[in-house]
Amino acid sequence: MIPRRVLAGLGAAALAGLVAPALSAYPLTLLTQAAIIAILAMSLDVLLGYTGLPSLGHAAYFGIAAYAVGILTTEYQCAFLTCLVSGVALAALTAAVFGLLAIRASGTYFLMITLALGMVVWGLAFRWVSMTKGDNGIAGVPRPELGLPWSLSAPLPFFYFALAAAVAAWAVLGLLVRSPFGMGLQGIRESESRMRALGYNVWLHKYLAFVIAGAFAGFAGVFWAYYNGFVSPADVQLVTSVETLLMVALGGPGTLAGPALGATIIVFLKNFVSVYTKRWLLILGAVYIGVILFAPRGVLGALRRRST
Amino acid sequence: MRAEFWITQTFNGLSYGALLFLLASGLSLIFGVMRIVNLAHGSYFLLGGYIGLSVIWRTGSFPLALLGGAAAVALIGIGMERLFLRRLANQTLGQVLMTIGFALIFQDLALLIWGGDPYSLPLPAALSGVLTVGELRFPRYRLFILALAALIGAALWLALDRTRVGAMIRAAVDDAEMAQGVGIRVPTVSMGVFALGAFLAALGGVIGGGFLGVYPGLDFEILPYAFVVVIVGGLGSLPGAMVGSVLVGLLDNFGKALFPELAYFTLFAPMALILALRPTGLFGRT
Fold this sequence. Notes:
Number of helices of chain B: 11
Order of helices and strands of chain B: HHHHEEHHHHHHH
Distance between the termini of chain A: 18 Å
CATH architecture of chain B: Orthogonal Bundle
Radius of gyration of chain B: 19 Å
Number of helices of chain A: 14
Number of domains of chain B: 1
Oligomer: heterodimer
Structural class of chain A: mainly alpha
Order of helices and strands of chain A: HHHHHHEHHHHEHHHH
Radius of gyration of chain A: 19 Å
Shape of chain B: globular
Largest sheet of chain A: 2 strands, antiparallel
CATH topology of chain B: ABC transporter involved in vitamin B12 uptake, BtuC
Shape of chain A: globular
Strand content of chain A: under 5%
C-alpha cells in the first residue's frame, strides 16, 4: 500500500506544477527555492530521521557542490552534466572523508565533530580566496543549457527543472529508506546494540548513510548554484546547516515528505517575514524554540498524533 | 627573524589560547554536568563583549566592564537554564535547536541594540602599550590575559579539586543520578555550573573585546574554536580544556601565520588526528 504521505507529497508536487504557470515571478522564485532546499532537507533526514545521527555540518556538502558548479561554469565553461557529476561526486567524496571521522563518534560528539568539520569547509570558502573569491563569492553562474526547446533562464522552465529534480530525489531516497538497507538504518536508530547483535555491520550502514546524505546534499547544491547564479560562504555557513536541521525537525524527522514541507514553510516564512521586518533572525529563533516546545515531533508528527 | 618569529607567534598563540580557555572551560563543564551542547555559548561571549562595552562607555571603568558584562550574561544563562533547557533533559536534538534558537535571537538583539559596526574595547592605560624585552615586544594586554586566565584556571582547579562544592560538581559529572541519590541537589549544581559557564564565556568576551574587537558574527566565529578545544581536550574535563585551549591557540596562530589560506585546515587536521587516536579527546572518558 502506498502511504498517505506519499500520495499527499505527490499531490503537492503536482499541484505546485499545475499552479506554477499562473503565478507571478516572486512566488515562483520562492517555490523554486523551496523545491531545491527540500532536496537538502530530505538528504539530512536520511541521517537525522532514519539513522538518528544529528549532523550539524550538512551545509558543507551542499556548499561544496555549489562551489564546484560556480568554479566549473565561470572558469572553465563546463556543461551541465559535467557540473552535476563533479558537484555530486565532490560532495560525496567530502562526506566519505568526513564520515571516517564523524561516524566513530556518537551522540553529542557526532554533533560537535560534524559542526567543526562543516566549519572547515566554511573556512576554506572564506579564506581560500584564490579558489573561492572569499567573501565576495562567485557571481555570474549561468543557467544550464540542456538543448531543450525551453530556455532555463526563464523562471517557469527552471522551476519545472528544479521540481523534477526534487521529485526524483524524493523517489530515490524514498526507495532507499524502504529498502532492506533503509530498514537497517532505522533499526540502528532504535537500537544500535541490537542491530550489532543481529549481525549487521552498524558502522558500514551509518557510513553509507552519511555518504549518501552528503551526495544528495550536493545534488541540491548543484541546483542551488544554478538557481542563484551566485555562490558565497553564506551557502556553507553554520546557520545554513542549522536551518536545514530546523526544517527536518519542523516537518517531522523520519518522514521524507515532512522535511520537504518544513523546507517549504521556512523558505516562504523567511521571505515573507523579511519583506515586513529586518528582524528575521529574531523570528527564526523564536520558531526554533516554539517548535521544540510545542511540536517536538514536527508538523507531520503532530498531525499524525491527532489522527490516531 | 627566525627566533623572534617563533617566540612572538608562540606568545600570541598562548594568549589566544588563554582567551579560548575562558570560553571553553564553561562549555566543557556545562556539558559534563548537564550533557547539554550549548550552541548559545558563543553568544554569551558576544553579549559579554557588548555589555562590557556599554558599561565602559558609561563608567569608563575596565574592571566594572568585566564584572558587569560577565554578571549580566550569567543571569541570562540562569534564565535560559531554568525556564527552557531544564525541561529538555536528555533530548539532544531538542537542546541543539533550542540553544540555536537563542543564539539567533541574541545575535539579532545585539544587532538591534549595538548596530552593525565593529567596536574595540578601550583599554585602561596600565594595560596598553608593549613590554620590550631586548628585541622582543610583548603587548601588555596579552600578558594580562595570560595572567588572568592562569589565575582563573588555578582557581577553578582548586575549587573543583579541593572544595566541597567542587566535589559535588565532580560527583554530578561522573553520575548525576547517583549524586542525586546521595543527597546532592543536582538541579542546583546544574544551575550554578551553567551560570559559571556563562559568566566565564562573557568574561572572555569582554576581554576579547580588547584585541579581537566586538562585531556581529563573532559569536558563530568563536563557537567552533570552543568546540574544537572541548573535542580535543575531552568533554567535561577541566585539564582537557586547559591543554586543548593552549593547543588550539598555538595551532590557530601558527596556521594563520604560516599558511594563511588554509588556516582552518591546520587547526582541524590535528583535531582529526587526535580523534582518530582517541575518540573521546585527550582527557575524556567514555
